[in-house]
Amino acid sequence: MNYKYSPIFIFLLILSVFSCEEDQETIISTPENDRTEQQVIDNDSLVVYLNTHYYNSSEVNAMMNPSLQDLIFIELLDGEVVPSDHSLLIDNVEIKTTSHMDVEYLYYVLKIKQGDGEMSPEFTDDIKVNYWGALTDGSVFDQTTTPIVNDLSTFIPGWHRVLPDFNVSDSFVSNIDGSVSYSGYGMGAMFIPSGLGYFSTYQDGIPTYSNLIFKFELMQTESNDHDSDNIPSYMEVSDSNEYDLYGLDTDNDTAPNFLDTDDDGDGTITADEIMIEVYSDTSLEALKFTLSEIVLLSNQFISSISSNSGTFNADVVTLVDSNNNGIPNYLDSTESDTIE
Ligand SMILES: [Ca+2]
Ligand SMILES: [Ca+2]
Ligand SMILES: [Ca+2]
Ligand SMILES: [Ca+2]
To answer: Which of 109, 116, 117, 95 is nearest to 160 (CA)?
Structure first.
């Protein structure tokens, strides 16, 4: 049989030609911009924006619960002065610095309300938020109409830095239509360079290397322990980068610690290598008081309070180090005592 001219051969030949074309496309695609160079360009453009836009400061600051729509950014036209009761953004934003992918970034936060609730999210926690996102040319690429709940760790790096600086709301009421109205929530805006956003990745409505502006309302937060090993995820991050969940894999089994139930790979699950004391009360206030009276050692922490059919629970976790080598049992594969 002559394979050379068989339909299958021709089919494979065509397929291989297409594959080659695909490979060529990959090769000629534009290389990613240098992060440090891009940061300089992005920061210049953000500073221009903040110097040429003002907001309705008196009005929004006087509000109990300002909404996303209440905060308005207005362009300062050539020769115009900032109207009274308004403020130029550059005079009111907090200038922040952070390191991401070995580059020093500047970003800017406008704090309207800190938030009256006690809790602030860790970047690994679930958050309930309303937000509005736009480019510096004013085009809006995304906005919520009702609050969404999402895992903050899945958001862009800029959000990881900004949201933990705000507090949640301190009260809410349920409306007749089933919706919930929050009061005393944290509210503000962030102005972030592309390197803390999507950088070279195109998103719907967001060209590559776009600086991003977000307004947000932070309603609630809930602690995440992605692998349910009783070590909250914010404590299972890289030693060198507090925002890197994937950079810590103690037992090198390719499962990062925040997704690994046996972090040191010694065959005893993490939950059995730490000590947990459960505190319960039917009164949340009473439980909080009890917890506030506990003097915590440096190897102890209190897990977040959960509620279960009328009872409030909190765990006091002790990271036991049986052989006193400075490494707690759950991260020490040489130490496998099980604690009951
Ligand atoms: Ca965990
Ligand atoms: Ca691991
Ligand atoms: Ca773990
Ligand atoms: Ca273990």
So the answer is: 109
